[in-house]
Amino acid sequence: MSNTPEETGRAIAKAASDKKAEDIVIMRMTELTTAADYFIVCSANTATQVRAIADNIEEELEKIKKPYLHKEGYREGEWVLLDYGDCVAHVFMTESRAFYALERLWSDAPLTRYED
User: Fold this and answer.
1) In a domain? residue 105
2) What stretch of H or E contains 87?
3) Residue pLDDT, tens place only, 77-92
4) pTM
5) Number of domains comprising the chain
6) For 105, left (φ over 0), alpha (ψ -120 to 50), or beta?
């Protein structure tokens, strides 16, 4: 089963929302980088919640036959990155998200707030 990058992005956002991620945004990166079509960015208050969100994204995407290609930051839990090729999930602790400011760094990207 093949999913479009947009469908994958929405599946990531929904999986994050299911674990109470905050301030979920989907950034369309197609015109700005070849790294991915979409960045999905969200926040959590604790490292434990960051890992729970990342775990749920991983589990839900496996159900639609979309395993991640690369994962980093999981052990520390400050910023977990899950690379799905056409989509990259960024799960931040709130303070880390403010520090790295991906939305500001990529301010030219069209941004959609995820509403469940």
Assistant:
1) yes
2) strand 87-93
3) 999 999 999 999 999 9
4) 0.96
5) 1
6) alpha
